[in-house]
Amino acid sequence: MKILIIGKNSRITQFLKEYLDKDFSISIKGYSELIKKDSLYFKKYRFIINCSSNTKFVKSKYDASNDYDYKIAKKIIRLKTSYIFLSTRKVYKPKESCKETDKPQPLCNYSKNKLITENKLKKILKNRLIILRISNVIGITKKNSKKKLHNTFIDIFFKNIKKGFIVNNQKVFKDFISSKKLGQVISKLIKINARGTYNLSIGGKVYLNNIVQWLNHYNPNSYKIVNHDKFNFNNDSFYLNNDKILKKTKIRISILNLKTECKKISKKYFLN
C-alpha cells in the first residue's frame, strides 16, 4: 500500500516515517512540489497525510489560500484516495474528558482554522476521511526541523534545561501522546481502513511536573526550579476522552507508555 506524507521538514513526518515504513511504501514530498501536480498524480496513493502548514494558517484568521489541507483535498475529490487530517485538541474548550461529540469551542485562530478545515474536508471527501484531534506529541527527532511554526512542550523543556532550570507546574495537567503511539495508531487506522473523527491521546491527566521529571531523568547537570508564574505559559488543564479510538484500534495507550518513552528521550538527549 502506498502512503504519501506531505512535509519534508516536519517533525511529525519524521515520527510517522519511522513507524509507517515498517508496513507501507512511504513517499515523502514537499507541499510546494505537490500543489503543482494534477489530480492523476495522486491516484497511486491509498492514503495521504499532510504534515505541512504555514505561519498564516497558524496565526491569522481563516483564509482558504493558506489552507494546505483543503487545497490538496480538492485534488483528490474524484479519486479513491483517502485523507488523514491532523487536527488539534484545541478545537475543544480546555476541560476534563473532552469527547468527539462535544460541541467544539476553539479559542485561537489556529484551532478555529483547524475546525473550519475539518468541516470543509467532510463536505468534499465524505467517507474517505480520518480526522485526528491530537494532543501534545512527545518525541525527539533524529535531526532538528529546519522550520518550526510553534514550540512544542518538549521544545520548551529542552530550551529551559539548557539554561539550567525547569519550571514548577505542580497543579497543571495536560494530555499527551508519544510519537511511538502516534505512529502505531495511525498505522492501525490505515490497515483497518478506518473513517471518522477521533481523539488521539493518553486519555488521562498527566501532571506537568511528572513529565518534566521523566524527561529530566538522565540529566547529570545541576539545575534550579522556577515557579511557573514567572512565565507566560499556557496553564490550562485538560485531557481528552480516547475511548473511541481505543475501541477502534485495540491499541493500549497508557501513562506508563509515556513515562517509558520520556525516559528513552532523556537518555538519548543527555547521554548520547
> Mean of residue pLDDT?
93
Number of strands: 12
Alpha-carbon Rg, integer = 19 Å
Q: List segments where confidence is low: pLDDT < 50 over at least 5 consecutive residues.
A: none
Helical content stands at 25-40%
Order of helices and strands: EHEHEHHEHEEHEEEHEEHEHH
Q: Please give the alpha-carbon distance between the first and last residues.
A: 35 Å
Largest sheet properties? 6 strands, parallel
Q: What sort of overall outline do the alpha carbons produce when their principal axes are compared?
A: globular
State which percent range the strand residues make up: 15-25%
Instruction: List the strand order in the largest sheet.
Output: 2-1-3-4-5-10
Total helices: the number is 10
Derived structural class: alpha/beta
Account of the protein in words:
With about 270 residues, this protein is of the alpha/beta class. It contains ten helices and twelve strands. The protein has a six-stranded parallel beta sheet, sandwiched between helices. Helix 1 (about 10-20) packs across helix 7 and helix 4 (about 70-75) packs parallel to helix 5 (about 110-125). It starts with a strand and ends with a helix. The model has no long low-confidence stretch (mean pLDDT about 95).
